[in-house]
Amino acid sequence: MSPFELFGIGLPIIQAPMAGVQGSALAIAVSNAGGLGSLPCATLSLDVLRSELATLTAGTSNPYNVNFFCHTPPRSDPGREAAWRQLLRRYDDEFGLDASAVAVGAGRAPFSHDAADVLSEFTPPVVSFHFGLPASDLLQRVRAWGAKVVSSATTVDEARWLEARGVDAIIAQGCEAGGHRGMFLSDDLTTQVGTLALVPQIVRAVRIPVIAAGGIADAAGVAAAVALGAVAAQIGTAYLLCPEATTSAVHRAALTSDIARHTALTNVFTGRPARGIVNRMMRELGPMNGSVPAFPLATAALAPLRARAEAQGAGDFSPLWAGQNVSGCKNVAAAVLTHEFAARSPDRAGLSR
Amino acid sequence: MSPFELFGIGLPIIQAPMAGVQGSALAIAVSNAGGLGSLPCATLSLDVLRSELATLTAGTSNPYNVNFFCHTPPRSDPGREAAWRQLLRRYDDEFGLDASAVAVGAGRAPFSHDAADVLSEFTPPVVSFHFGLPASDLLQRVRAWGAKVVSSATTVDEARWLEARGVDAIIAQGCEAGGHRGMFLSDDLTTQVGTLALVPQIVRAVRIPVIAAGGIADAAGVAAAVALGAVAAQIGTAYLLCPEATTSAVHRAALTSDIARHTALTNVFTGRPARGIVNRMMRELGPMNGSVPAFPLATAALAPLRARAEAQGAGDFSPLWAGQNVSGCKNVAAAVLTHEFAARSPDRAGLSR
Predict the structure, then answer these.
(1) Residue A34 contacts residue A9 (beta carbons within 8 Å)
(2) Cβ A224–B196 below 8 Å, yes or no?
(3) Distance from C-alpha of B275 to C-alpha of B228, rounded to nearest angstrom
(4) Do the domain assignments include residue A353?
(5) Cβ B224–A224 below 8 Å, yes or no?
(6) Whether residue B191 is found in the same domain as residue B336
(7) CA–CA separation, B214 vs B185, rounded Å?
């Protein structure tokens, strides 16, 4: 199946949804260039979700993707959260922050009927999920307007689980990928597999199209993904320096420095493992920490510290999400990058194969 | 540069040297098929090295590779070794073994002048190293008979280090690979990168040919490696079931069972991180253990336990080395596999590009 048959796009490029570092502008640029632009929705309020979708649909008439998390919200554990704040206390002291002022809050909400209400006003053609799938009644609402449903698998078992629940395509997320691991059937990091090993095994295990993600940063990477049997490549990190991304100054500075060559999986920023550039927080409290509150409750405690450090030009307490291959990051228009990524792939718009 | 120009081989396939599971027979089969067969020499006595090389050179007139480790032998630390044996004691009790009978010994010797003496009788056309490079006088002896020198890099820094010391090609060993990580400039496992991310970054960083390793198990994987800029692919795991391999019965059984889908990097078998199928030893004492004696001193303490368990048909205490993609393992002749791996690559013998 071609990317055109699957999503109606001409180029086999999916811009990875990246909460916190991009909104509709990047998605519009990529969709207009012939790839599939993605709007990360996990951190958006319903009002912002609606306004972003209005902007997105006004900005492109091409297909686009909206992405949601579908974790089970954890029960708040005040004891654990207090212990975590105690661990962070030395930093609050260092930065002159009042830890008691920290807000309690989730920061990332799972896909909900309220969100589906907003989506139904726009009927996005592609809806992708991270951390599995939402409940079947919610999924049914998305399918009702004909959206293609996509989710990430980090293992063969997860791919089979998703196929059995009727997704239209699977993103095989290799361990190189930046940001949150989509893992949902296990929390054992040793189950996480490199892209070159994962993609062909999932391609062989399922009968639906597979999208390769993780470590892909240029046309050679896209060609390799296609050689492994993927119908398209999902690329995130390489878009982080684009003017259309909202990547923070400290994040951009880190991506263009040598420290970007060293990433690790860490749970200290959100409570779930995600790949980011190794910084002070990860070195001193991680990269994996057994005391961190459950996802996404870890986020709130760090927010004031992160803001204070960023104001001083330091990314020491910020999640500097990045994959294991930052060599494709360039401060050029996302459309230019999208065409570069597809340089070894013929434009399939209107073609089938 | 083509594999023919580099090594005189027609197919872009290098059989990974795998100590303990293969000898000259597998190397002969692969070299005669047009790939580059490899003889792992790290565990061989000088007498066995000589006899294996005699067998190998009698069995093929095509190019072949000999592989050596070049670690710095550790100073024995009796206290640490005793503590490790104490950790293993519960297993000795379970299996009725006398822990005091355990031999003290290295098991794996680094490349030496004595080994170079033996090699000089055969002048192998390719010599590859793991864990960096030997001292320059030793390297000079190998170069003197015109051997191509190859070593593994697991990071861009290691690739640059090797290029600066004049190697003829670099094996980019992605994190998917089975067996020992070739890492030598850092012992931080978070520096280890997936093949799809590593290969293009090393290709860009150096001017010498790059060989991709890790997670490659079929012609699609080889095509992906070539798309990423590699001149050839090094494949190990997929050869483990070949009749020419000496893979143990418990290892073969593990490779053909579902447990082979879950591997991890572990140091419990030798003292250095290596990828193997997760088994009882790794689950109960690892996968990484801070008390393990320095490489290769950890090996001896486990030998009687491993032998006793294997005699009972259990691989619970055996290093079941395997990469993250065992889908290519087949009990067919290595020549057949080699041709399958190269099915999407034209035979370059006699051609240059």
Answers:
(1) yes
(2) yes
(3) 23
(4) no
(5) yes
(6) yes
(7) 19
Strand A64-69 versus strand B13-15 pairing type:
unpaired
Q: With contacts defined as CB-CB under 8 Å, which chain B residues touch A214?
A: 194, 196-197
Starting at the edge strand that comes first in sequence, how are the strands of the sheet with B274-277 ordered? B179-180, B274-277, B263-266
Strand B179-180 and strand B274-277: the pairing is antiparallel
Task: Please indicate, yes or no, whether residues B55 and B142 belong to a single structural domain of this protein.
Answer: yes
The pLDDT, as a whole number, for residue A98 is: 80
Helix axes B156-164, B195-205, angle to 10 degrees: 40
Domain containing A184 — which CATH number? 3.20.20.70
pLDDT tens digit sequence for A186-242: 999 999 999 999 999 999 999 999 999 999 999 999 999 999 999 999 999 999 999
> Residue A349 domain-assigned?
no
- Please answer yes or no on whether B176 and A196 come within 8 Å at the CB atom: yes
Q: Which of B156, B261, B278 is closest, CB to CB, to A261?
A: B156
Instruction: Decide if B200 and A218 are in contact by the 8 Å CB cutoff.
Output: yes
| Distances, alpha carbon B262 to alpha carbons A12, A198, B256, B320, B324, in Å | 30, 12, 12, 11, 7
Do B50 and B88 reside in the same domain of the chain? no
Each residue's pLDDT expressed in tens, for chain B with a length of 353 residues: 899 999 999 999 999 999 999 999 999 999 999 999 999 999 999 999 999 999 999 999 999 999 999 999 888 899 998 899 899 999 988 998 886 666 655 578 899 999 999 999 999 999 999 999 999 999 999 999 999 999 999 999 999 999 999 999 999 999 999 999 999 999 999 999 999 999 999 999 999 999 999 999 999 999 999 999 999 999 999 999 999 999 999 999 999 999 999 999 999 999 999 999 999 999 999 999 999 999 998 888 899 999 999 999 999 999 999 999 999 999 999 999 999 999 998 766 544 33
**Distance of residue A58 Cα from the nearest chain B Cα, in angstroms:** 36
Alpha helices in chain B (DSSP H): 3-7, 24-33, 46-59, 78-95, 113-122, 136-144, 156-164, 195-205, 219-227, 249-255, 280-285, 298-311, 334-341
Statement to judge: residues B338 and B269 lie in one domain: no
Q: Among residues B12, B19, B28, which one has the least CA distance to residue B334?
A: B28
Residue ranges of chain A with per-residue pLDDT less than 70? 99-106, 347-353
Is residue A346 included in any domain, yes or no? Answer: no
Chain B nearest CA to A288, separation (Å): 11
The domain total for chain A is 1
Please tell me whether residues B287 and B247 are part of one structural domain: no
Chain B partners of A324 at a C-beta cutoff of 8 Å? 193-194, 197-198
Cα A303 to Cα A93: distance, rounded to the nearest angstrom? 15
The minimal CB distance from A327 to the residues B196, B200, B324 is found for B200
**Chain A CA closest to residue B174:** A194
Helix/strand/coil for B189 = helix
**Which residues touch A100 (CB under 8 Å, ≥6 apart)?**
none
Domain interval for residue B311? 74-107+257-326
Q: Hey, how many other C-beta atoms are within 10 angstroms of the C-beta on A146?
A: 8
Q: Are B201 and B170 in contact (CB under 8 A)?
A: no
Chain B residues with CB under 8 Å of a chain A CB are: 155-156, 174-176, 190-191, 193-198, 200-201, 204, 214-218, 220-221, 223-225, 227-229, 261-265, 278, 287, 323-325, 327, 344
Q: State which amino acid sits at residue A228.
A: L
Look-up: residue for tokens 């960083």?
A: B205
Contact A190 B278 (CB under 8 A): yes
CB contact under 8 A, B324 and A156: no
Respond yes or no on whether ipTM tops 0.90. yes
Q: How far apart are CA B15 and CA B237, in angstroms?
A: 9
Question: Residue A128 domain-assigned?
Answer: yes
* Residues of chain A with C-beta less than 8 angstroms from the C-beta of B344: 227
